[in-house]
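Final report, results section. Input specification for complex C-07:
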Amino acid sequence: MATEVIPTDASKLKSVAQIAEGTAYKPLPQKAEDGYVTAHAIQTIAADPQTLYTLWRNVEAFPRWQEYVVSVKELGAGKSHWVMGNPEDKDGTRVEFDSQIERDTPGERIGWKSVTKGVEQEGVVTFVPAENGRGTIVTLIQKQRVPGGAVGNAVAAVAKRGPKQIVIEDLRHFKEMVEAGEIPSVAGQPHGPRGVTGSVKEWMLGETNPTPPGSSEQR
Amino acid sequence: MKAVCWMGTHSIEVHDVKDPEIINPQDAIIRITKTAICGSDIHLYDGYIPTMEAGDILGHEFMGIVEEVGSEVKKLKRGDRVVIPFTIACGNCFFCKDNLWSLCDNSNPNAHVAETMYGYSGSALFGYSHIYGGYAGGQAQYARVPFADVGPIKIENDLSDESVLFLSDIYPTGFMGAQNCNISPGDNVAVWGCGPVGLFAIASAYMLGAGKVFAIDRFPERLKLARECGATTIDYSDDDVIIVEALRDLTGGVGPDCCIDAVGMEAHSSTLVGVYDKVKQALMLETDRPFVLRQAFMAIRKGGTLSIPGVYGGVLDKLNFGAAFGKGIHMAMGQTHMHNYLAPLLKSIEDKKIDPTFMISHRIGIQQAPEFYKKWQEKEAGMTKIVIDPWQDTIANPVVRVMERHSA
Ligand SMILES: NC(=O)c1ccc[n+]([C@@H]2O[C@H](COP(=O)([O-])OP(=O)(O)OC[C@H]3O[C@@H](n4cnc5c(N)ncnc54)[C@H](O)[C@@H]3O)[C@@H](O)[C@H]2O)c1
Ligand SMILES: [Zn+2]
Ligand SMILES: [Zn+2]
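Structure output:
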């Protein structure tokens, strides 16, 4: 990727997330151009930055809370191998790629970038203590190639959600896992006959979304 | 199991569906012993709450016996008798810790739908549309209850099911409705709607020190129950009655200190503006009919508090916000923060301060649900509260208490 739109400096994010006194609001990167979508999500999570950093840094545990991650293998030196797809659909599409953690500041920030040819995504997550004592302000920014097809955007290739919504749901699930110990789900619950429109709207019903289990050992 | 399903506007069917299973580690499965139809269910029946889908299992007022618990459930065990609050809360987020349980951050799997419509998502509810989580409801033989250590309250006395069932929603809702209007000892309180929520609001207002309570409705049997609770009643269908004037006269020209809208989005009115609302609502230009809010804005005293337990879902039209502003009123509203009220209100029942069964008019079997949804929506004579026994198909004589419809 030619231009770097993702702020790599946690202090820049801090000024937006916490509205430092006497500064003007500057929007976080959120745009779609040149075939890339940059999206962000922000949540205040009731835990300290170090705990959240440690959970996020444990890449092999991502299938516990992120949708459409089948497995992750830590390869050492910040490199990991990712298999994306619907974990509940054994014969479903799988997209594999390697990811490299590039900026890693314990307790503060993790930045990563895909290093497999054809898959283009990068991201950064920052952990800033909330000044009001409500925990940690977690900001996730991701830039990815769209339309993905089987290459380019590995998540969009297998998920039903749009690229912006994926970022929002990923961070939401992280928060749910940390705070509630599980990710709310109605997947597979009973219901009466859905009729014709019901099946069309299954994305909205949430009953067919593969919800990750969300148990966190640290809790 | 058998379950009452929403199949479309004004279409309710009982279907055989699969039994619920544990999905998450903090879930419990409840074998339901009693469940009820709520005024809120009418909004679903009439199709005014968006994101209902054919096949959705209805019901958010239920109790029963714990059948099975998930691996992380510590406080409940198989065999416990419990009442389930209709709001689903995680117990650990900022909102739960602040006792704002119906605003829990972590219970709605479809939070993104609510965010599109409301900016942020409240907690999930049982059996109340996909925007509120899409959880299968409790007008069924079994239900899955998430966060089982957080919500359900154990009943460890020999009170009947019907004595404690309304802890699941309407008693706490009426109570919070009264609490939200900041009653000081001796205050005059006006309550619109003498349905179950309004009746509990009247009783609760007195518990909280109200001087006089004025109750407004048009159905004689409901007004009679309101009088049994101690209220002075006003029949708004009486041609000689103008509500704002009645409340002014009854409060020495001041207006009620506290007003409670226990009617919500489907307020009835025969006036022209009411007809206008009905037409607009039918044409989907307006989602809610704010007739009671309009009256309350005019009737309330200067600096008074308006509490709104009645449900609103969307866009309101022709609301005199200037009246609310000009008189500097306070407003409080929202889904009930159920978890705050379960223990204290259970105690009020145990201490015999209130017997919640007084409003039950009908007891039915599950196969009678479609027929009684219709009767309930039409406010057929004598229907004040319907309890369902999901293990009986039909109860031959459903009338529990005869509530006659002739003016007193
Ligand atoms: N906030 C919550 O968490 C919560 C919980 C439960 C119920 N509710 C809501 O509370 C409301 C009442 O519930 P309910 O079970 O008592 O319902 P209900 O339908 O049995 O009662 C409503 C009553 O309002 C009366 N009414 C209609 N138009 C009126 C008007 N213009 N003036 C005065 N009275 C009028 C009706 O005649 C009826 O008796 C509903 O909107 C319901 O959705 C809210
Ligand atoms: Zn209810
Ligand atoms: Zn919560």
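Chain B has a mean pLDDT of 94. Chain B touches chain A through 48 residues (CB under 8 Å). This concludes the modelling results for the funded period.
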